[in-house]
Amino acid sequence: MTPASPPDDNPLGEGLDQLPPPSSVLVIFGGTGNLSKLKLLPALYNLAHDGALPERFGLVAVAMDDLTDEQYRELVREAVTRNSRRPCDELVLETFLSTISFVSGGFEEDAAYAELAPRLKALDDRAGQRLNRIFYLSTAPRFFGTIIEQLGVHGLSDRSGSDVRVIVEKPFGTTKAEALALNARILKVLREEQVYRIDHYLGKETVQNLLALRFANGLFEPIWNRNHIQSVQITAGESVGVGGRAGYYDTSGALRDLVQNHLLQLLCNLAMEPPTTFTADDIRTEKVKVLRAITPIDPDRIEEIAVRGRYGPGSIGGEEVRGYLEEPDVPETSTTETFVALRLEVDTWRWAGVPFYIRTGKRISRKLTEIAVTLKPVPHNAFDGAVVEPNQIVFSIQPDEHVSIKLAAKVPGSGMNLRPVTMDFSYGTAFLSASPEAYERLITDAMRGDATLFTRADEVEAQWTVMDPILTAWGRSSAPPDEYPAGSSGPRTARRILLPGDRWRAI
Ligand code: BG6
């Protein structure tokens, strides 16, 4: 697709491959859903704005709603106008809308696929070539297996002369057994290299930057091990509550919603060994090794390493908010956690004995995603009486993208007084540009056939191996999660799992 206006002069793009992805059609199952409206459609618009969509491109949305092409384009116009990260350019939007059509139908019904097939064929004919096909499953998870089987039945899952790929949204199962069963079902129809299990945290710039900082600098790797690192702390606090998503969230909880996928990915990027090359399989193999090295959790000793919490009423930013149990559609008897704190250990030569703390919660005082690496204290304090705080390297992922290093420095003046100071690298300041949204990067990668930032079958299974014992232990207990007031930093009991000398960072 040719951009209607020149792409932004984006310094982040310097040196990157600017060729658009191969000509493709993207089919979004669940094209009228929340994720589509909030993230996917705005991401596609922004790609169009940057001239980053394929030269020949078509978007087909499939959903149960009874809409015409024109009505669906109106829905897209509204979603993009409301949620795009940059103001809409009318010309770009019109050109983008002209690539879109809509198929109405149930995901389990043959009719939708019978209508889809000729639509895709017509797009090929118009383009004068066999377009690559990317199917994006942005539906309730119970449809993932069915849609892929239907693609197989209707001859849409493979095709000579073009590539067919399927992007599968989260959650990928709710236990290891379910993830295994879903993988088996999918891999009866598709080859693993066609499957793109999405984790949008991997598309975030600072998450990728973690690998750049670690493996493109000589500064960090020599200290990146148990000899120098005291602890690692990964925090993902959110000020939002469950909003209108209680139907999903109450069956999921914070562990499945954020820890199993996003936070384990952060842990892997921080802890993995240097891959031989930056190819999808080398990187994913290293991540799987980290997951397999996490010390298995004993459900009988869960209290020592895990805390679950649930927000009660409180106030955030001066606004009174209700507790989780008062949220619409949450059952009175719910024991679902909205907060999790864990202490994990990666039992390898590099990491043995280093605690990896993970913490996430809804209705925390503010949105904050970061990884803090605390170094061991200096072996000898020569500064008579002065408190020397250990160095800390903090990767801030949200809301600001920056990396800071906490150092001890002398306070100016007489005497030798010390104070912590920080050295900062801020993305916005260094590159003078807002980072693209994670979904922009990931959709482009899928169109290019680069699976590096997607989760492999064995990786998702290994993630569930870590989570299953925690779910088992919590499933056995009838005790409710520990309550914390909305607007706080979580339940006080989160301290229970800290090793002596460690403390949670302020949120
Ligand atoms: C999603 C979860 O995967 O990630 C949500 O389902 C959560 O509950 C969201 O709010 C957080 O993503 P981000 O990019 O806003 O940190």
Calculate Rg over CA atoms. Answer: 24 Å
Helix content: 25-40%
Bound molecules: 6-O-phosphono-beta-D-glucopyranose
* Biggest β-sheet: strands ordered side by side in the sheet: 16-15-14-13-7-12-11-8-18
Q: What's the domain count?
A: 2
Multimer state: single chain
Query: Within the CATH hierarchy, at the fold level, what is the topology of the largest domain?
Result: Dihydrodipicolinate Reductase, domain 2
Note the beta-strand portion: 15-25%
Question: Helices and strands: which structural class?
Answer: alpha/beta
Terminal CA distance: 44 Å
Which features would summarize this protein structure in a list?
Rossmann fold, disordered N terminus, 507 residues, single chain, seven-stranded mixed β-sheet, Dihydrodipicolinate Reductase, domain 2, globular
Description:
This protein has 507 residues and is of the alpha/beta class. The protein has two domains: 11-169, NAD(P)-binding Rossmann-like Domain (Rossmann fold, 3-Layer(aba) Sandwich); 202-376 and 457-497, Dihydrodipicolinate Reductase, domain 2 (2-Layer Sandwich), CATH 3.30.360. Helix content is 34%, strand content 21%. The protein has 13 helices and 18 strands. The chain has helices at 34-49, 69-83, 90-97, 110-127, 144-153, 176-189, 205-215, 246-271, 280-293, 302-305, 427-431, 438-448, 457-476; strands at residues 24-29, 57-63, 100-104, 132-137, 164-168, 195-198, 229-237, 306-312, 314-316, 319-321, 339-345, 355-361, 368-375, 392-398, 402-410, 418-426, 454-455, 482-485. The strands form three sheets. It has a nine-stranded mixed β-sheet. It has a seven-stranded mixed β-sheet with strand order 3-2-1-4-5-6-17, sandwiched between helices. α1 packs across α2 and α9 (280-293) runs parallel beside α13. The longest helix has 26 residues, at 246-271. The chain is globular. The protein starts with 23 loop residues before the first strand and ends in a 22-residue tail after the last strand. Residues 2-8 have low confidence and may be disordered. Residues 170, 238, 257-258, 369, 398 line the site of 6-O-phosphono-beta-D-glucopyranose (BG6).
